[in-house]
Amino acid sequence: MMPTEVVRGVWVTTGEVSTPGSRHPQDVSYARHMLAWRAKEFLAGRAVLRALIAHVEPNAATAGILLGPNGKPALSEWPSLGINVSHDGDVVAACVSAQGPVGIDVQDPSDRTEAAWIWTAQEACVKAEGSGIRGMPRTVDVRPYSTTGTWKAYRWLMLRHLSAIPLSCAWRQQ
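That's the 4'-phosphopantetheinyl transferase sequence above. Prediction below.
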């Protein structure tokens, strides 16, 4: 998927774990402490995320990425630019928001069930909030076959119109 502005100020893109990994020194340093398969996923995700950042805000492309509580990434010099990344199976996805916190989730391409779509919306919401799995994603009310909704201060969108694989994003409503 090419970088796509899914709503004003919220951009999404996807890639594959086979994507050449990020060579940013900070990313390589983090990956050095991971198992080989995990480092490959991590570096592919960071490469896709950094490419999307460069598309949305070129000056932020080389910024340091900090990990907050529950692993939520943030740009060290660009706190107003929300970022998030997800990977499952051979797919990675990234999102960037010029409007603040954002979350994204993608599920393995082999699982195209409605439950997988629902999970991506639920997971995207708790990732946008920064609570991650501790935010109890299953408590996010997502109705079967819906495409958009709200949860707390966040709006979520299933990207059924852009992706054959389960992929959703969430962002803080303005």
